[in-house]
Design goal:
The complex is a heterodimer of chains A (248) and B (267).
Chain A lengths: L1 E10 L2 E11 L4 E5 L6 H9 L6 E6 L2 E2 L5 H5 L2 E4 L11 H5 L12 H14 L16 H13 L5 E5 L7 H18 L2 E5 L3 H7 L2 E6 L2 E7 L9 H8 L11
Parallel strand pairs in A: 3-8, 3-9, 6-7, 7-8
Antiparallel strand pairs in A: 1-2, 1-4, 4-5, 9-10
Helix pairs in contact in A: 4-5, 5-6, 6-7
Chain B lengths: L1 H42 L5 H12 L3 H23 L8 H39 L2 H7 L4 H38 L5 H11 L2 H27 L4 H32 L2
Helix pairs in contact in B: 1-6, 2-6, 3-4, 3-6, 4-6, 4-7, 4-8, 4-9, 6-7, 6-8, 8-9
The chains are: A alpha/beta (248), B mainly alpha (267).
Chain lengths: 248, 267
Amino acid sequence: MIVMEDIHKAFGSNRVLRGMNLNIETGTSMVIIGGSGTGKSVALKCILGLVTPDKGRILVDGQDASKGDRDAFLARFGMLFQGAALFDSLPVWQNVAFRLLRGSLKRPKAEAYEIAVEKLRRVGLKPDVAERFPAELSGGMQKRVGLARAIAADPEIIFFDEPTTGLDPIMSGVINELIREIVTEMGATAMTITHDMSSVRAIADNVAMLHDGVIQWTGPVAEMDHSGDPYLEQFINGRAEGPIEAVR
Amino acid sequence: MSSEGLSLNPLALLAALGRWAISAVAAVGRMAIFAFGAISHILRPPFYWREIGNAFLNIGWLSLPVVALTAIFTGGALALQIYAGGARFSAEAVVPQIVAIGMVRELGPVLVGLMIAARVTSSIAAEIATMKVTEQIDALVTLSTHPMKYLIAPRVLAGIVTVPLLVGIGDIVGIAGGYAVAVYSLDFNSATYLKNTVNFLESLDVISSLVKGCAFGLIATLMGCFYGMNSGRGAQGVGRATKGSVEAAAILILAANFLLTGVFFSV
């Protein structure tokens, strides 16, 4: 279980998170929605330690995320970045097996290659992609490789940062389905950041709406459409009028 | 209004000066902490041998052509200049000695350092800044890999080791350029030229050249890494990081050259 307690984070005078509280149950899929620049990515990066909160506490299975063995902590996570964040200088298979080629999870090279090819197959890519470089792939294929990398070491917790941004609707649907299938079959805890409502409906067990640095509403995805929360309703219906100020 | 303006201006000027001084000291502090971190990661395992090998190849081996070409033309031009200048007071015969001392003590290390700043510092800064902008650095962290150890330490190590070697090669090639011009164009005797060159050079000249190479390699790679890791967002951020890294590396190389020359050769 991931617990975020009273998380504050400011960049200069810009107070992005202003006391965010959120619980994510083990084995569930939480999707955080909210407008651009509301701090969704910052919240996710706070959990991973990529950004240090100014105040507050993050617990993962009761253990303070800022303390203890960092390598062991990060080994529990997989992450799909918004732009896939693949390493240009490495072929696809080495990107996927990056964690398996070094550090505490190191395996023999041949075994790491086999796992990479298997994970690529799992996300719908053929083995011949393994030897290609990221720059030779389309955006959708790069996302799939990023997804394969995120699941390569069978993590307990997987983060997805804007998984469908920049993809056409059909490819978005494919990625959403893949994420849902993989999270279900791995039994992993998932946290996704998006403002794509089709992703929310495809991926989420629970939804949290982040606005003004705090969680405005959270609950099961089934209750999202009749929550009665004006912020959430404005967001999911894409209305310009409402409590969320829209810049024209 | 004018008297109020006059009374406020000195304070505003002082405040601006103070802000500049604080930010300059903070930048130096950040750079020092970064340098300390980089060097400590060079010494501590794990070692990423593949990354270290790539860094040696890119910074050392692939810089050889540009270093050799710069040195050979500079050595040749130096021989021509000394010959023409020396002719004014019948001192044409000092060409081998001055080319040797000029290349080994000053021109070799400085020109190689500046070429490395242009070729390597810019490339390191642009590559790392792009990795930062595209979240590849964050990805490294989430994959339990320390960016200082994986990206910075191999490049800085390669700079410290390969740049003095490049300086040594540059010195030799520069002297060879001077030799070629002197022997084939200015009618110097080949054996005498070589004998004068070898006899005139002292071991301190060579040692100072190689030490300067070490220092310049450290500066060039550190600046590339530091500016890359601290780049702003987007293409503009990458551009600024690249430009800033080359400017900082070139200025620091010239300043370090002055200091080291003082240390080795102050009377």
